Task: inverse folding
């Protein structure tokens, strides 16, 4: 099953939707409750990847995601606008979580709260009343499996339509970093550091690289939309950022190996390549 597309919205597009005040979009701050309380986009709610139980072998499950979304006042009909500090470090994992429940309409604010503030837009702060809970209906769409486990990788690593992408530093990829008992990379994995997905939009504000900007690099590595892309890093965080970026670029089949090298490199039975 392929996930619905994830759109990237500019500050001007987000501002128009927020100022409309018609509730058509739900603005979601993914940075964590403390950061949200300190300063946030007007009308936003706090919901971060840390609010979901992310097990290395199980998920979270779609039913648990639906329950958490509903308790936060989010229904399946809501168009969600996600933001973080602009790096995608929290937005990417949230896109991954929402994909597991096949939430139909998700957008990302390009540049996050930094771009919003740099554009001169107002920020709110302090406590705010929680939204009343609603029912989140999962029946309209089956759950989407976008988790890669060690077992799944071992069973699928020889498929021509599957490509593994190591999102760590080059030193880690080549086995010069000390992240586990054994160091290197999954055999035949290509290397694209997570930071390559970001561009300086000016004034230190990051934004996601566009498809045109990234296509030469992606194509050269074989990271193309008709393959199933499996991202990994050391602990599933940098790889989740790349997961989110690939989804905004229109890639329909992407997985995140949450346990990543912390598991693979410490298991003596898994194959490892270096150099």
Result:
């Amino acid at each position: 099953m392929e996930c619905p597309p994830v759109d990237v919205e500019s500050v001007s597009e987000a501002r128009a939707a927020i100022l409309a005040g018609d509730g058509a979009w739900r603005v979601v701050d993914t940075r964590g409750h403390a950061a949200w309380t300190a300063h946030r986009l007007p009308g936003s709610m706090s919901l971060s990847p840390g609010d979901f139980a992310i097990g290395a072998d199980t998920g979270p499950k779609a039913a648990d995601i639906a329950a958490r979304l509903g308790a936060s006042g989010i229904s399946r009909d809501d168009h969600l606008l996600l933001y973080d500090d602009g790096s995608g470090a929290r937005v990417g994992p949230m896109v991954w979580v929402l994909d597991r429940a096949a939430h139909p309409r998700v957008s990302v604010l390009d540049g996050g709260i930094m771009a919003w503030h740099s554009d001169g837009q107002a920020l709110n702060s302090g406590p705010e009343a929680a939204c009343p809970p609603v029912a989140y209906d999962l029946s309209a769409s089956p759950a989407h499996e976008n988790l890669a486990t060690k077992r799944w990788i071992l069973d699928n690593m020889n498929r021509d339509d599957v490509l593994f992408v190591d999102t760590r530093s080059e030193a880690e990829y080549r086995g010069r970093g000390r992240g586990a008992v054994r160091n290197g990379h999954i055999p035949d994995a290509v290397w694209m550091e997570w930071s390559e997905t970001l561009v300086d939009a000016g004034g230190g504000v990051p934004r996601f690289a566009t498809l045109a900007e990234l296509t030469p690099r992606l194509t050269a590595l074989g990271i193309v939309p008709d393959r199933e892309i499996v991202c990994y890093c050391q602990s599933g965080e940098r790889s989740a950022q790349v997961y989110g970026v690939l989804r905004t670029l229109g890639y329909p089949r992407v997985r995140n190996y949450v346990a990543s090298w912390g598991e693979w490199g410490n298991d003596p039975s898994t194959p490892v390549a270096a150099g």
Summary: The radius of gyration is 19 Å. The first helix runs from residue 11 to 20.
